Amino acid sequence: SYELTQPPSVSVSPGQTARITCSGDALPKQYAYWYQQKPGQAPVLVIYKDSERPSGIPERFSGSSSGTTVTLTISGVQAEDEADYYCQSADSSGTSVVFGGGTKLTVL
Amino acid sequence: EVQLVESGGGLVQPGGSLRLSCAASGFTFSSYWMHWVRQAPGKGLVWVSRINSDGSSTSYADSVKGRFTISRDNAKNTLYLQMNSLRAEDTAVYYCARGVVATIGFYFDYWGQGTLVTVSS
Fold this sequence. Notes:
The complex is a heterodimer. Helices cover 0% and strands 44% of the residues of chain A. Chain A is mostly beta strands. Chain A starts with 8 loop residues before the first strand and ends with a strand. The relative contact order of chain A is 0.34. In chain B, the strands form two sheets. In chain B, strands 2, 4, 5, 6, 9, 10 and 11 form a seven-stranded mixed β-sheet that branches. In chain B, strands 1-3-8-7 form a four-stranded antiparallel β-sheet, with no helix packed on it. The chains are: A mainly beta, B mainly beta.
């Protein structure tokens, strides 16, 4: 079955830039989406179609794509950004929804 | 304001059944595909099932196929998940999510707060 691979954890100091990667063979053909999930809360969409930002999401959140890897970048990280982040995409046929394993962002 | 409110979770014995509901408001429910996504304690997100806007097409993850049934009542703006033959590994928070159909594939722009299902004797 198709898999998306994320690093389990990323740590960054406040004000620095955090980069969270997600790798998958079908990513050159499929859009990627990113969700933020804080403890005890539902996921929130922060990036859609690789790099688009929904209304209400701070500009410090951005997304990019290169080959089989997509990247969520958080510029000027704030304490409130500490959360789990999940990438999501589909297999090459577009029929199966797949989530990455999640990355815990720690703000030091 | 879009709102999705799940209910129906609880403790059930292995082999038992449970029906989850998701009440939608703040948008035209009948225009959207809807999904269930679950999250086992301390684990990641896993897609469970989807239903198209008029209820004529459904799809399931292999892990629940044949045991779970997704349905909707557009007159009541409500999504359902009937879960039968429950197993310990079905223990999770179950989220309903509004689906957006992209050029290829789809994603989830709004999520409910989730309802916890615990399968244990």
